[in-house]
Amino acid sequence: MPLLEINDLYVSYALSRDRKVQAVKGVSVAVERGESVGLVGESGCGKSTLASAVMRLVPAGRGVISYNGVNVLGLRGKGLFKFRGKMQMVFQDPYGSLNPRLSVGSALEECLAVHGICSRVERSGRVGELLQTVGLERSHAARYPHEFSGGQRQRIGIARALAVNPEFIIADEPVSALDVSIQAQILNLLKDLQEKKKFSFLFIAHDLAVVRYMCARIYVMYLGAIMETGATDDVYLRPAHPYTRVLLDAVPDIDRALAGRRSKRAALEGEMPSLSAHIGGCPFHPRCPLAKPICRAEVPETKKVAAGHFSRCHFAGEIQSL
Known about the structure:
Helix content is 33%, strand content 21%. It has eleven helices and twelve strands.
């Protein structure tokens, strides 16, 4: 049984009294205990909404979110509090996710106190250990968030997530707001921590190269729905959905560029429509280089391409000819 299992989940936002936008549309995701899973897609496709629904930060519509066999959507009071002690989140914005009025030590001690992790006299020592775990100094506990760089603040966010000894961590684009020179350091830190502490890991990003480095399996999301899923190498080497293929082809080919050769790869035309747009048939067909009349008329079913590899495309077996 997966540690986290999401089945046919829908999440919507109210735009007005009579109008809603469906941000997550029938999504199913599973993460095994100790597994690292990636969720990738363009900005605005519903990735962060899905993560927030799992954490019960936004209300879900119909569907089931099961954690260790328990429906998270049915949890209230102490049950919900206990669940949040097992699952933690590292947010995208290292500037907005920390309270500027609390020192780093106070912020971490607050987590320990609320969840009853250790006694009052043990907290300062535990805070020092957490800071060292993420590559900071014990003395940094006395400083405030504005005294740190973006990369250091994200390390503090990671330390805060680790404070309650979680079984599961959701990292929501944890490096997208950081300088490129710092991103690799944070990614290596997260990867090392996941390997050492064996927590399950849902890593959300729009950079496919980053997800390939971090994760064993991957889900590709577009316009609120899962388009393809499989083992990371299978999806990257043998993409079975046109959206996945053009996303991969959008990654710059340095060798080709240095040789002065133009890429013959498929280009992703236009921008992703609004989640409120009404698109018949396959949601990707307005931008798809393989689109046929059936794509505009019928919603494709999810097809098995190989063991553990699935694609939501009418022509899943023909993508390699793109």
